[in-house]
Specification:
The chain is α+β, with helices and mostly antiparallel strands. It is built from seven helices and seven strands.
Length: 316
């Protein structure tokens, strides 16, 4: 019986030790959960960039800490992105307000002069200048409206087979007076016949208008336009020299409200090339830019009619 008693005493002791160890473990587990809760409360209350940390990490606690930290990192990244976008939007609103206010101010001045003058010739000149300012305001508002529409994923263009080279030539002709004033005729390298592409004529006209308009603002010398057949894609490249002192960040040039020099007033919304990029993507194509040694070029690639672009949107 003494041997049995000893065994029972040993077992009771082991059970007691096990119970104590389990109690300590549970208390430590509870303490760590409480610490994690306190750290999360502090981080959220003070918008801290700290992450959750624990001294002892049982497997379950370690997993909880990792998931909490993943959520915190994601929240921090979203906060930084929101802050950047908010800053961009504030700058954009300021810039657009300035761009719209400038022609409005001069519009009011020209109308006042037209009312005050009695000479018909002078009156007509002031009215013409006022009308030009109205057109600038209309263009700015139209670009902002179009950009907003293009940000809607559900907005799609009605694509059809289009002779893009013909649309390009027609659009270049609308800039005849601008090319004449610049003293530089465009250098065209177009094939006699080019394959049709999937596109929307109105979107194509807007794309060419924005690219050529960008050339007149930032470029100098002749504008070279060439068409290149690239198997399933058709590429149109616009190339020109940059004005002295000009620089282009090709990584940002297609982003909204990008400007080479935000301090300059050019009556531009800064949305022109961003609209080009968005319209090209809506037509299953792409737009890219390159700048080296003072030479700037924009490539726009179209999916040929009857071909599917691997990363494109379905046409209607």
């Amino acid at each position: 019986m003494r041997g049995v008693d000893r065994i029972l005493i040993v077992l009771a002791g082991l059970l007691l030790l096990l119970l104590i160890a389990q109690t300590v473990y549970l208390l430590n587990y509870r303490r760590q959960v409480g610490q994690i809760s306190s750290q999360l409360s502090f981080i959220m209350e003070h918008e801290s960039r700290k992450l959750v940390a624990t001294q002892l990490k049982p497997r379950e606690i370690g997993r909880l800490v990792r998931e909490c930290n993943n959520l915190l990192r994601r929240q921090q990244a979203m906060g930084e992105q929101f802050s950047r976008k908010n800053q961009e939007m504030n700058l954009a609103i300021t810039s657009l307000s300035h761009d719209i206010r400038t022609p409005l101010t001069s519009l009011d001045g020209y109308l006042q002069l037209a009312l005050q003058t009695e000479a018909e010739q002078e009156k007509g000149r002031y009215v013409a200048l006022a009308q030009s300012r109205i057109q600038q305001i209309i263009k700015l508002v139209e670009e902002l409206f179009l950009y907003t529409k293009l940000q809607n994923p559900e907005y799609e263009l009605k694509l059809q087979a289009v002779d893009v080279a013909e649309v390009l030539k027609r659009n270049l002709f609308t800039f005849f007076d601008d090319f004449t004033r610049s003293g530089n005729e465009p250098e065209l390298r177009l094939p006699e016949r080019s394959p049709r592409v999937m596109g929307d004529i109105h979107a194509l006209e807007r794309i060419f208008t924005n690219i050529i308009g960008n050339y007149f603002i930032h470029g100098e010398g002749p504008l070279t336009v060439e068409v290149e057949d690239r198997q399933e894609m058709l590429c149109i490249r616009f190339t020109n020299r940059l004005k002295p002192g000009s620089s282009v960040d090709t990584a940002k040039i297609f982003t909204r409200f990008y400007r080479e020099d935000p301090s300059r007033t050019r009556h531009s919304s800064g949305l022109g090339l961003s609209i080009v990029k968005s319209l090209m993507e809506k037509m299953n194509g792409d737009a890219s830019a390159n700048s080296a040694s003072g030479i700037f070029s924009i490539d726009i690639e179209f999916a040929k009619a009857g071909k599917e672009h691997p990363h494109g949107h379905p046409s209607q």
